[in-house]
Amino acid sequence: MNIKPLADRVLIEPAEAEQKTASGIIIPDTAKEKPQRGKVVAVGAGTKDHEMTVKVGDQVLYGKYSGTEIEYDGTKYMIMKESDIYAII
Fold first, then answer.
1. Contacts of 68 (CB under 8 A, 6+ apart)
2. Considering the domain boundaries, does residue 25 fall inside one?
3. Is 62 left (phi over 0), alpha (psi -120 to 50) or beta?
4. What is the pLDDT of residues 28-77, one digit of tens each?
5. For the domain that residue 83 is a member of, what is the CATH number?
6. Residue at 56 is within a domain
7. Closest Cα to residue 39, out of 85, 73, 5?
8. Is the pLDDT of residue 17 over 90?
């Protein structure tokens, strides 16, 4: 990975949007919700006041409107502050 987040930032590869509901109904592309979970791909070094808790490979939950979407080598990523991450799953 050539992207190295700075300070307390985290680079996340979002999970795929659900294709169908639990009952088997197929969700059309226009109705799919933005995923709120993903895999941590890269982590910044933290700051002198804040040590990073997440590490590469963690599966995390984050806010619906958190972070910034970027695309690198044809893959979409989210970059956000660690404080925007709600939980490690």
1. 78, 79, 80
2. no
3. beta
4. 766 666 778 999 999 999 999 989 999 999 999 998 889 999 999 999 99
5. 2.30.33.40
6. no
7. 85
8. no
What's the number of domains the chain is made of? Answer: 1
Q: Which residues lie across from 13 on neighbouring strands?
A: 39
The residues that bridge with 77 in the sheet, in sequence order, are: 70
pTM reported for the whole predicted model = 0.83
Can you spell out the DSSP letters for the chain?
------TTEEEEEEPPPPSB-TTSPBPPGGGPPPP-EEEEEEE----SS------TT-EEEE-TT-SEEEEETTEEEEEEEGGGEEEE-
Cβ 14 vs Cβ 38: under 8 Å:
yes
CA distance 39 to 22: 22
